[in-house]
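Sample pair:
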Amino acid sequence: MTLNKGEQVEVVTSVQRRRRWAAAEKRAIVQESYQPGMSVSAVVRTHGIAPNQLFDWRRRMEAGALTAMAAADNVVPERQLRELEAKVHKLERVLGQKTVENEILKEAVRIGREKNSSRDSRCAEWMVSSESGSPESRGGPVERVQTSHGGGLDLVAPSARAQSG
């Protein structure tokens, strides 16, 4: 093999199976192969790649696959993309279910608080209007105090409050 002036020979000494090409390099090589007067053979010899590799890059560039590489974005295989889209769809469905469950629980808490509130007021009314007469007739004055559990007001005799406090 004779070398013309300015030609270089690349000697590959490593055991590396593949070379990695940057997106800008791929695009430049593909564009070079489209230049007038340039043949695919000359371009692949210049860059030390196989012709089928160049044709693959050309096909991908025409299909728009190399535009993602031009922006230095990572490109994932379609299979992996479909798997990730399915996973996102599943997570969105689970999120929707949990949102519905959360809304149901909020409504249950609201109803429970309303029932506790009405129960406390009914209980207080019952104690005040019981058949034994006024609260004072059952053992002295009664006062309303806030319960520790936050459920409403309880009626407690002052003497019972002093003993528990």
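The chain has two domains: 23-70, 78-164.
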